[in-house]
Amino acid sequence: MGNILEIKNLSMEFKKTGNIFKAVDGVDFELRKGEVLGIIGESGSGKSTIAKLITGLLKATEGQLFYRGQELLKLKGGERKVLNQHIQMVFQNAVGSFNPRMKIGKSIEEIIQLLGECSKDCLNKKVEDLLVDVGLKGEYADKYPHEISGGECQRAAIARAMAVNPQILICDEATSALDVSAQARIVDLLVHLKEEHGLSMLFITHDLPLVSSLTDRLIIMSKGKIVESGNTKEIIENPKSEYTKKLLEAVL
Amino acid sequence: MDRLKKLNIPKSLWILGTIIIILIILSLLSDFLVPYDPYETCPEHVLQPPSSHHLLGTDAHGRDILSRIIVGSKTSIFSAFALIALAAGIGTTVGLLGGYFGGKVDTVLMRVTDVFLAFPDMVLAIAVAGILGGGLVNAMIAILATTWTQYARLARSSTIAIKEETFIQAAKLSGCSNMRIMLRHILPNIGGPLIVTATLHVSGMMMGIAGLSFLGLGVKVPQAEWGSMISEGKKFLQTSPWVALAPSIVMVLVIMVFNLFGDKLRDILDPKSAEK
């Protein structure tokens, strides 16, 4: 398996009233094609910032990002946007990730029109197909985000992300706002999509038990740095760093 | 229409809305509705009290006051609407740009806004009208100069509050340009408070124009306008009070209707109060 995404010495600084806060501090890792990589860490450990840096929502202060050997941070606005065809993201706040004044279907249409290839006639059909693929009914296209549940909204968000057939799907705490049964179903859906489309996934969470079944490899983060990385099974059975041990103890 | 029904619009809003629509139609058709020519002077009927011939009496030149009030409504209502449209348009654009882009763009736009805000609005309006000279258009420019800042401030703060929302990030990942995000995603979501401000502002604009006309800086003299009519009538307040009182009372009533409408509209569009 080749590397689809390589991250080298990535750093992100936020300036707050004179103080410099390093949210991400010299992080190196790679995402292999077709694998699920979990990033675990407590809140404030910089894991969400990494997601935003990869998708281009934030501009990194330092470091390099390679997508299939292409240096991402050097790309200008327009070229960078086109890359969103390849890298998409699912957010924690499912309902909040849809414009409250737009129907679900319109939000999905928007991404297809702007980034995808689809004629006007097949647009409705494509939206319906996408919704069915994630286990929703086609009628959901005509609903507003507040009219459906959080779990359904997260499915619609996944449908939107999948609308452009991305290579990499980043899930930023995609399940943590949902109840346990909805969580399990979303994870099932993600596994299914991954196998069907050969997705590479970056699964960011603070929920250790959840990732143990889903991910191939793990990265444990604390205070903007990687404290441990490796095979999921190995880390859970034989953690090396103190931080990981504490994290595991807290769960067990 | 489905969404309108869901909003559960109270009866009072329907009634006020109907009154406003009737007012607008009346002022549009004012030229055909007037019982007398509002500009025809009649030396024999000077300062006549209200009677069956002249329902609201006549003024110092023998002109029918009711006719002048009806014709004047066109000036008052439509110049108020035009002012609001311009002020809201300019202000919202400035606020949206400043709030969305932040940084230097925001600083420059907001300092310009601050300069306009620094003057008390009526004083600035009088100064502008004084420099440009009288006339309705100049009076409108004068009022516009101070009004748009309120929309700019409001649009900016709402934009800043909303631009960090997840759906804006999702829109960016959907390939939306900045322009598209501002128009399709931010504007519809900050529109509510702006519309409410605009409706509540209609009365303010009417008073502003009437105020400038009252001071002789608004419409030119023979033209029928409520402010200038009150101004003319104040000389006869003790002998023939109807000349000033009739347009005053009409103005108070119309302004009240617009204010109540704005209040009710706010109750509906404000999500917090809509829960009740």
Task: Tell me briefly what this model is.
With about 250 residues, chain A is α/β, with parallel strands linked by helices. In chain A, about 35% of the residues lie in helices and about 30% in strands. In chain A, a hairpin with a 2-residue loop joins strand 1 and strand 2.
Provide keyphrases for this structure.
heterodimer; A: 252 residues; alpha/beta; Rossmann fold; six-stranded mixed beta sheet; four-stranded antiparallel beta sheet; 9 helices; 10 strands; globular; B: 276 residues; mainly alpha
Question: Which helices and strands appear, and what pairs or packs with what?
Answer:
The complex is a heterodimer of chains A (252) and B (276).
Chain A: E1 3-16, E2 19-32, E3 36-41, H1 47-55, E4 62-67, E5 70-71, H2 77-82, E6 87-90, H3 104-115, H4 123-133, H5 150-162, E7 168-172, H6 180-197, E8 200-205, H7 208-214, E9 217-222, E10 225-231, H8 232-237, H9 242-251
Parallel strand pairs in A: 3-8, 3-9, 6-7, 7-8
Antiparallel strand pairs in A: 1-2, 1-4, 4-5, 9-10
Chain B: H1 2-6, H2 11-28, H3 30-33, H4 65-101, H5 103-117, H6 121-132, H7 136-163, H8 166-173, H9 178-214, H10 226-233, H11 242-269, H12 271-274
Walk me through the structure.
The complex is a heterodimer of chains A (252) and B (276). The longest helix of chain A is centred in the C-terminal third of the chain and has 18 residues, at 180-197. The mean pLDDT of chain A is 87. Chain A is an alpha/beta fold. Chain A has helices at 47-55, 77-82, 104-115, 123-133, 150-162, 180-197, 208-214, 232-237, 242-251, and strands spanning 3-16, 19-32, 36-41, 62-67, 70-71, 87-90, 168-172, 200-205, 217-222, 225-231. Chain A has nine helices and ten strands. By secondary structure, chain B is mainly α. Chain B has twelve helices and no strands. Chain A binds chain B through residues 52, 55-57, 81-82, 84, 88-89, 91-93, 96-102, 107, 110-111, 114-115, 157, 160-161, and chain B through 165-167, 169-176, 180, 184-185, 188-189.
